[in-house]
Automatic annotation (TrEMBL):
Pathway: Protein degradation; proteasomal ubiquitin-dependent pathway. GO terms for biological process: ubiquitin-dependent protein catabolic process. CDD domains: MPN_NPL4, Ubl_AtNPL4_like. InterPro entries: Npl4, NPL4_C, Npl4_Ub-like_dom, Ubiquitin-like_domsf. This is MPN domain-containing protein. May be part of a complex that binds ubiquitinated proteins and that is necessary for the export of misfolded proteins from the ER to the cytoplasm, where they are degraded by the proteasome. One of its GO terms (molecular function) is ubiquitin protein ligase binding. It holds the Pfam family NPL4. Residues 168-282 form the Nuclear pore localisation protein NPL4 C-terminal domain. It comes from Gossypium darwinii. Keywords: Phosphoprotein, Ubl conjugation pathway.
Length: 412
């Protein structure tokens, strides 16, 4: 049978008579076939062996130290991988003499070794059970990109909501930061001070940032991918920044239906654990050329996909599908939304309050976008979280706040 031996020199193969041979016989075959003396060999089924730095580190790998044990006792069979650490020099068959630096040095760098062991596989299950959208919030977002932007440029926003004990992400509103949308790129012009206000309001409402939503353009619809390489990197960056395992990324696109008409379509994903880790470790190539295939992500080092060492990975390997539902949340979405083309003025506040004057005052201000407007433009930044708590508990707004807000509206 054939065994694969992975060492600092890469992956090599040796032929053995069968799983009944002992570890000592295996070491003898390695000596004869790979020219590594038995006394220089340390074997293990644990790939971390290749990361050992000192003789003391090697002592941790004891699963193959008993030379009398047959390979079958370790569940090794045809095609199995065994990891080999050795010191000294050797001549690789068909290659140059390998001269590691120091008795426990290695030809390859530590990054090279780790790269050789990095396998990209599909993650079958997300960390969240599903994502549910407040209908009005989702509709306000898609209506703007559909009717105003006509899906000609990209748009994005941060989703805020709660996470249930069952792992369900419930999105109640979307904050749209300052941004520049292009045909195939989305640049978020993030304002740290504004985002602090948003997070403070969200906390008062009993919500937190739970995901990112963005649109693709009609030009992208012709491409054969779910996410482009640029979108993978942006989504991975925001997922990593969140430090939230349930973080969800949603893409909104225009797709042709069976009748040939165009429908707005929402799809939800999580970035895989491996994708987020690779981003944090700086493995993604972030510069793109005109001839680069957008459905492939480029790596700075080789990774293993399907048993092959590659530097380009199909983007779908990094996506984990999440189920989508909808619900009717407690907040309205009727106040003009921030950071869009039209500047929101005080007359919008007056119009909103006039339109809702039959409702209790706390209901009239139960709109995230209205609360953010008050916090940003009316000098109420430190007071708005208290108003948000009133909204969250649906308790009466203190009279002083109510009079102040109404006077602002009447001054329009």
């Amino acid at each position: 049978m054939m065994l694969r031996i992975r060492s600092r020199d890469g992956l090599e193969r040796i032929q053995v008579d069968g799983p009944q041979i002992t570890i000592f016989q295996l070491k003898t075959l390695i000596e004869s076939q790979l020219q590594i003396p038995i006394q220089n060999q340390t074997l293990s089924t644990d790939q971390n062996l290749l990361l050992a730095k000192t003789p003391a580190d090697l002592l941790r790998f004891s699963d193959m130290t008993d030379r009398s044990i047959p390979l079958s006792a370790l569940n090794l069979s045809h095609g199995s991988i065994i990891f080999l650490y050795y010191h000294g020099e050797r001549t690789v068959r068909g290659g140059p003499t390998v001269s590691p630096a120091g008795s426990f040095g290695r030809k390859m760098t530590m990054d090279d070794l780790i790269a050789k062991q990095t396998r990209i596989t599909r993650q079958e299950s997300p960390h969240c059970d599903s994502v549910s959208f407040d209908r009005d919030s989702a509709n306000a977002f898609q209506r703007f990109v559909n009717e105003t932007l006509a899906f000609a440029s990209k748009r994005g926003g941060f989703m805020y909501g709660t996470i249930t004990d069952e792992g369900r992400v419930e999105v109640d509103f979307i904050y749209e930061p300052p941004q520049q949308g292009l045909e195939d790129d989305l640049v978020l012009l993030r304002d740290p001070e504004e985002e602090k206000l948003v997070d403070a309001i969200a906390a008062g409402l009993g919500r937190k940032r739970v995901g990112f939503i963005f649109t693709q353009t009609i030009m992208q619809e012709k491409k054969d991918y779910n996410f482009s390489n640029k979108e993978i990197i942006q989504a991975a960056e925001l997922h990593a920044e969140s430090e939230l395992k349930e973080w969800v990324t949603v893409v909104v696109k225009l797709e042709a239906n069976e009748d040939g008409a165009a429908d707005v379509h929402f799809e939800a994903f999580q970035m895989s654990d491996m994708c987020v880790k690779l981003f944090k470790d700086g493995w993604f190539v972030t510069e793109f050329g005109e001839n680069d295939d957008p459905k492939l992500s480029k790596m700075k080092k080789d990774v293993v996909v399907g048993g092959k060492d590659v530097k380009e990975v199909d983007n779908d390997f990094f996506l984990v599908v999440v189920k989508i539902f909808d619900h009717q949340g407690p907040l309205s979405t009727s106040f003009p939304i921030e950071n869009r083309k039209n500047l929101v003025a005080l007359r919008a506040l007056k119009s909103h309050l006039d339109r809702t004057k039959s409702l209790p005052f706390v209901k009239r201000i139960s709109d995230f976008h209205l609360l953010l407007f008050l916090a940003k433009s009316q000098g109420l930044g430190s007071d708005v979280p208290a108003l948000a708590e009133c909204v969250n508990t649906q308790t009466a707004v203190p009279e002083g706040y109510q009079l102040l807000i109404e006077s602002m509206a009447n001054a329009a």
